[in-house]
Amino acid sequence: MSYRAQRIANRPLELQERAPVKKATHLILCCSAALFILLASCSLSLGQQTTLVNLTEEGLAEKEYDPTAALTQFKIQDIYTPSEYGTNAQPNTLQLRPLLAVRPQLFTPLEQLIRPSIQVVTVPRNKGATTTTALDDFQLLDLFVMPWPNEKETRFRWGVGGYFVFPTSTSQYTGHGAWQMGPAWAFGYRGIPRLQIAGLFQQATSFAYSSSHSVPVSSLQIQPMLSYQLGRGWYLKSSDATWTINWRHKTSTQMPLSAGFGKVWKFGKGYAIDTSFSCEWMVYRQFSSQTEQFALRFQMNLLLPKLEL
Fold first, then answer.
1. 240: domain range?
2. What is the rounded CA–CA span in Å between residue 59 and residue 55?
3. What's the CA gap between 92 and 78, in Å, rounded?
4. Contact between 116 and 138 (Cβ < 8 Å)
5. Domain tally, the chain
């Protein structure tokens, strides 16, 4: 049984619906997070990034799938799951995920990458086809890119930072009802012509809860990223699947794989648009009676190489 199913099954029926006050609090938190992103986006200024501005479509595609690249992005994607283990429902996730590049500052002399994630999810309520649509937990990744070793010589970049999860979900069927935080690490390597090898690791551990019925969480998310440039902005990728390993006893583990293709359309020196499509299969699962079996991912990403905080 999955973590979400265990949590719901263990609750008394009368307590499965969260109190309206708590739902309102979650809505306020989510709106505040969205407002922060909007204000940060509006405060973007033109940077002196001559190298990024002069990148070709192929160069922008490489930067896009490097989690350590200082490339401001505004990504929207829809993840549709036509087949899921343990239910007849067809879940869906609509995700908004900007990435804000921050120049080195006086008190933070390192490149900083801030990536918030807001999701509206449609999830199954039971083993039938009934679903619920609600806001999911708000996530925030904050990375600092290290200046060594020399990127021009090694073609290698890496960064460390923090990963945070805020309990903003508006339904008991979504989210964990827990405040979570932990370390994050990412790397990108472009030493092989046309090939991009990268990875993102995020560890989250709960330390406070929005409900007395919330269950402690400790999980590791691993996102392996491979992309190969075909030329003229076209590329192949296996970069979307995220492996989730829950550390607590008899909690779920999922390891999917993805494959897809895309193209970057450059409209000028100031911006470009990337469109891509990929499929995702669940290759390995443990203690996951209800999880995705097969998913389709549609993505559009606005790339802004001239903009930075």
1. 3-308
2. 5
3. 7
4. yes
5. 1
Please state whether 293 falls in left (phi above 0), alpha (psi between -120 and 50) or beta.
alpha
Residue 111 bridge partners (DSSP): 145
CATH number of the structural domain spanning residue 30: 2.40.160.40
What is the reported pTM?
0.84
Q: What is the pLDDT of residues 44-74, one digit of tens each?
A: 444 444 445 568 899 999 999 999 999 999 9
For residue 107, what are its two tokens?
Answer: 């008190």
Find, among 236, 246, 231, the residue nearest to 57 by Cα. Answer: 231
Query: Partners of 78 in the beta sheet?
Result: 94, 298
Distances, alpha carbon 76 to alpha carbons 15, 94, 97, 275, in Å: 34, 7, 6, 10
Give the residue among 157, 124, 121, 118 at the shortest CA–CA distance from 141: 118
The whole-angstrom distance between residue 27's C-alpha and the CA centroid of its chain comes to: 20
pLDDT digits (tens, 9 = 90+) for 126-158: 899 999 999 999 999 999 999 999 999 999 999
